[in-house]
TrEMBL record:
Enzyme Commission number, as recorded: 3.1.1.29
PROSITE patterns: PEPT_TRNA_HYDROL_2 (PS01196)
SUPFAM superfamilies: Peptidyl-tRNA hydrolase-like
Entry annotated with the keyword Metal-binding: no
InterPro entries documented for this protein: Pept_tRNA_hydro, Pept_tRNA_hydro_CS, Pept_tRNA_hydro_sf
Name listed for the protein in its UniProt record: peptidyl-tRNA hydrolase
Family designation: Belongs to the PTH family.
NCBIfam families attached to this UniProt entry: pth (TIGR00447)
């Protein structure tokens, strides 16, 4: 599960993907388990939910390079694109509304575009979190 965003700009609405991962880590009782993984240039935490092993990932790169971290983690943890969930902001959705999208285009989102490019696939599931228009 990768929370897309700009790591150095925490607290902004475009980093809602990372905020969701922080909350998920709290709910799975692994919030203290974040560690810096230099191989994939990301913060990583391991968790278990309903018998599934999860890799939680917050890239430490700019949004348009998040895919490099996601692809590196996929290689390290032996994950296929269809095993990956991307959590990201969506300007076209009202604030707080969420939707799940299975595969498809990036719809103009630079972080998703970067992931599609780095993984050579658009098969990732996306959790789109509405942030509304400015």
């Amino acid at each position: 599960v990768a929370g897309l965003g700009n790591y150095m700009l925490r607290g902004t609405r475009h980093n809602v993907g990372m905020a969701v991962l922080d909350r998920l880590a709290q709910q799975l009782a692994v919030a203290e388990g974040w560690r810096v993984d230099r191989q994939c240039c990301a913060d990583v935490a391991m968790a278990t939910a309903r018998g599934l092993e999860l890799v939680l990932l917050k890239p430490r790169r700019f949004m348009n390079l998040n895919g490099l971290s996601v692809a590196s983690a996929a290689k390290i943890y032996n994950l296929r694109p269809e095993d990956i969930y991307l959590v990201h902001d969506d300007l076209d959705k009202a604030l707080g509304k969420v939707a799940i999208k299975l595969g498809g285009s990036a719809r103009g989102h630079n972080g998703v575009r970067s992931c599609i490019s780095a993984l050579y696939s658009n098969e990732m599931t996306r959790l789109r979190v509405g942030i509304g228009q400015p």
